[in-house]
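Re: adenosine-5'-diphosphate structure - here you go.
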Amino acid sequence: MIDNPFTPVFGGKPDSFFGRKELLARFDRALEVRGSDDRSLFLTGTRGSGKTALLEQLSMRAVASGWRAIDIGAEQALQALHRELAGYDEVTETVSPSLEVKVLGSGGSVSGKSTARTTRYEMADLASLLRKAAEKEKKGLFVSVDEIQKVPREEVASLCEAFQMASRKGLDVILTVAGLPFSYEAIIHQDGCTFMRQSVHEPLGLLDVEEVQEAYRASFDKIERLEVRQDAFGRLVHLSSGHPYMMQLLGYQLIEQVARRDSREIVVDKAVVEAVAPAALDSYERRALRPLLGELSERERAYLRAMAQVADNSLLSSTGSVAEHMGKTAQQVAPARQSLIDKGIIVSAGYGLVRFGVPYLRAYMAKPSEEEANLAQLEAWGI
Ligand SMILES: Nc1ncnc2c1ncn2[C@@H]1O[C@H](COP(=O)(O)OP(=O)(O)O)[C@@H](O)[C@H]1O
Ligand SMILES: [Mg+2]
């Protein structure tokens, strides 16, 4: 049996990481050079574009270079960061590591006082905690914050202020945040977030053809007996649409399909790729598209369905036709359109035109909903 190098677990950490080489190289450089702009990075992308996977990579690289890495999610982000940093603070050095940290809002009055097991902090304490922690690190301190669009604004401001202060003191700190596309503009214009305005904004789009080819080649090279014919390879690259999760799924299905063959050489031709594509697409729809739609409002989903119906041959939809198809005025549907653009799900393609920004979403939205399919079946059987 062959070891499958692909790991299509959505949201899980992939065994092999594809593309983004230029950014990774810049990050490696930032780990060495204090003056690098890349010491503050703002990754944005639609759901499933690979933000979390990239944060993991950066974190791993930081650790490999001797940095301390702290990775936090949106849920009680500041509290989590305080907890990680607290071990360095004089007040808490003696306190049990399982201490409970309570971060008070600006209205809070107790600060840095330990009782038996509870230490209370104000958000303003973050700056000094961070500074002390960074001073004690040999190489530096890397902090990543995922889903930044969900972090309350005052927490983001505290985070910015703390990093601003630490950088000003010449300490080795890197802050990398990731969020949905609209979060960048929202945060850089927020009070107290000048620090983010100087960050490098890295929108994560689809991988380009060369990146996909290189990634697939590297993965296939790990399997000795495997030969992927040129037309099969081309088809595979095309079907991936440069979406890293679709790449994982297609690769995984392909290898599973041929893994049991015990011939000396395993030859993959185009027919094999065509045979596994539906299973890959099915998983992609269930694990990537369906949750993406689940996070949207009914109005936004209705907008996408209408867009799929009125799309022309070049896959563009006129915003006027979308509204008309929905039986609404352009003004009535404008908020849904804007919010879909802000989330990176659709893209404005010139005046009065939009197109889908996520692979395979158009076809998915054109399909009858489960309810419709159900009704059609009942009708067909005369039930
Ligand atoms: N650069 C990449 N290389 C390999 N797999 C990736 C890459 N980016 C994303 N993936 C795959 O896609 C899945 C979804 O990516 P994720 O980082 O969770 O997206 P996001 O955080 O933007 O919603 C991951 O679990 C992983 O399997
Ligand atoms: Mg994520």
